[in-house]
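Newbie here. two chains, one complex. Structure please?
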Amino acid sequence: MSLKLGTADFAKYPFLNEASKFLTESHLDVDEFNRPEMEYIIDRATIRVEVEMQGKIYKNLERHEVEVLTFLSALMLVKLTNIEQILKKHSLFEALRAEAFLIQDLRTERDEKKKQLLLFEIFKELFKVEVDLDPENAQVFRMKVTDYLVRSSHFHEEGWKIVNKAVHGGYVYLDADEIVRLVRNELGNLIYEKIRAMSLSNVPQPIVQKANYLALKFRPTYENKLPRISDYPPCIKHALDLMSKGENLPHTARLMVATYMLSIGKNIDSIVTLFHPAPDFNEKITRYQVEHLAGLKGGQTRYNVPSCSKLNSEDLCFRTLDCGEITNPLKFRRRPD
Amino acid sequence: MNNLKNSTSDLLFVRNAFREYYFKYNDLVETPSRINEREFGFMTFQTGMMRHLSFNNIREVYATLIRNTPSDFYCSNAYYNFPANLMQDKGWKGADLIFDIDAKDLGLPCEVSHRYHLCANCGEIIESTADPCPLCKNSTVRVESIPCSNCFISLRKEIKKLIAILTDEIGVEDDNISVYFSGNSGFHLYVYDACFHHLDSRARSDLVGYILGNGIGPEVIGVRKGANDKVSIKFPKAGFRYGWSMRLARKLRIDQSSSSKLTNFINKLGGYERFSKYIIGYAKEIGIKIDPQVTIDIHRIFRHGGTLNGKSGLSKLRCVDLNKFDPLNDACLLNDTDVQVHVKPSNLKFKLRGRTFTANQKKEKLPTYAAVYLICKGLATTI
């Protein structure tokens, strides 16, 4: 392919293999982070993580050398904090940042070949998914039905159901923002795995110091507020367990946890706190949703805990012998305090 | 096997007919692909279900069919690392995509004329479902149906609609589709395309929604709920060229320039909610009437091709040419030795192997294939 992505693209998508070639070509050694001129990069990376820990996307964009180095520094900082919640949250918000750039690029890029190259580099290279332009309309993108189903079936909103999409010849036709949203989780996972796989030794002191600062500032304060999870039914226990590790639970699992907690009499505040470790936690939205489930908002309908068979069909059931013949998690023999 | 549990002679008679079939027609029993990765199971005439069986080759399957003479024999749609282990330890590797269309789900008007109510306990014919069984006073009723030629014409149409959606929209190649007569009152459609193997239940459920038209909303054609029950319309960039948006646009006679026409139509109907109901109703009407649970279940065992259906004595057979395949003739392969039976319902009429039978609550001399058919359905007993 004669056309290549430019440095401006690497600035936005520093996780691309091509982008990291710059580091290899410039023979950058980790010791160079000790140099005074790197202070700006390390500070920038620290701010980036801080912004993300506040549940926001870091929007500042500079030239690609700065961006690639900041990205790398942020990965090291997050790795060194050794706090799972920071790792998860950073991965998610880096994915959201890239998502915003990508939507913009796919919407505004007029050169079809460039657009196709972006799609190829990001979807095919990173996620092994083929995304094409609609031959009849370059504003529309298409993805194979099976690739779409694997991803969209995890989304709760009706609009993502394939029945509400244009489908033809084995392809689902989508807008730029839809096609990008589909791979957000995978991009988050990719960054997460990149950090997990990093092996750090002889890390320069300025990075260690900033990592310690971040660890101290964002050490989970909610740990002691979490309930004793051993007393809950296995499905709830499993969900709480994942949440405590900062995993991004699907909507159905969050609904199960919230309705269960409401049913056993937990108050709204304590339920909202439960969701605190979620990487995409937003107190305002969470509170509204829990209040909605409690029948305090919207249609004033109080939602019931889904039945065991419903949970089973949603892959949320982790039945053990202790469950016996119960048909609803609420009937689990040992109710928590 | 419910319909035979009350009579040892019925059971022996049907079992012998089935055994003879497996001796004579074992070449019809299909060899599934990746046979050693499949879970098998069978239902015996007396003891019930056996699951978690595994076979290395088709000869082992033949031997089991002849040795055990099951009433029903099943093979998983799934491929496993260890098919004989319990479900949680099998190691799921993927599953064929299978659709089931049954006459009972089509809501056909003819169904009432060939439907029979039987006491679930003693098998007595019940005239009025409001009353308990006149013999044993049990009030649980079982429904049996004798599908007629009209049922099969409608089923064929529905299967063709399903094939059209799968090939034109979902992108399945014709060569990767096989249609089977289920051996009773429906058809199974198998998709062998490996692209679909890895789809989990949730993804299959969404695909089922597409086929049924379930979960559709006005958003499919760009209609969104605005403030005060008003609507905002932003037609999809992909237009109305494909899928459900195309079907709805055709129904509503709209194109990309019909925004005000559509707004007027929605307002006339009574707003967003009414329009939503209208769309849901239309989708339900024209959606393909598949059984959702069958397709969603990735651990299910299905009646195996070439084996007999214990509910009818007919074979589950692949329809090489759907237009020419006549289930009540081509799948009726038991012998034609005459046997005396007592037929339970009055005015019973059915057709098998091109021969029309009428029976009326009395002793009848019927060929074995017809006698087995009625006995399996609980509508006759041996004398």
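Moderator note: Chain B touches chain A through 37 residues (CB under 8 Å). Chain B has two domains: 2-107+145-209+291-382, 218-286. Thread marked as resolved.
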